[in-house]
Design brief:
There is one protein chain. The protein has 154 residues and is mostly helical. The protein contains 5 helices and no strands. The radius of gyration is 23 Å and the shape is elongated.
Length: 154
């Protein structure tokens, strides 16, 4: 029993790292190459992955306020976690048809939940950045006369 759990965990880790590396090459490398070409030529950077469009239009996350490459990394992490979780869960049984049935049954809830959590996390990050900028501006406007006196501008 213990050996089976260790074997399952190893399958999970191997699947996770393999999928994450593939996603990293596909998303992040292609984005960086297009960004380098953009400096020289007029290259369309709007060719976004489906996952980014899902976050933008379904979950209403404003990606433009975030660092695009970090969002790509997070999407790659979440997608590879989803795939490895589904593969590991399906591989617990030894029957081929049952594995396919399990994978088909859990794929939509797992993907929906993981992207819902990612969207909430990104929205919270955007809100935190906006509040941080707002607080800096409020502090500056509240204390601008004191600062001017301290700096000798008045």
């Amino acid at each position: 029993m213990r050996l089976k759990a260790v074997e399952t965990f190893i399958v999970f880790l191997m699947t996770f790292f393999a999928v994450f590396i593939i996603y990293s090459f596909i998303f992040i490398r292609d984005y960086r190459q297009a960004k380098k070409l953009k400096k020289n030529k007029n290259v369309d950077l709007k060719k976004e992955p489906v996952e980014i469009r899902l976050l933008k239009y379904y979950y209403k996350v404003d990606i433009s306020k975030l660092d695009y490459s970090s969002v790509l990394r997070r999407v790659a992490f979440v997608s590879s976690f989803d795939i490895s979780l589904i593969v590991t869960t399906a591989c617990i049984t030894n029957l081929g048809l049952l594995q396919i049935a399990i994978a088909c049954a859990i794929i939509f809830p797992v993907v929906y939940l993981s992207y819902l959590l990612l969207a909430k996390m990104l929205k919270r990050k955007i809100k935190k950045q906006e509040m941080k900028g707002k607080m800096k501006n409020e502090w500056f406007y509240k204390n601008r006369k004191k600062m001017a006196r301290l700096l000798g501008w008045t």
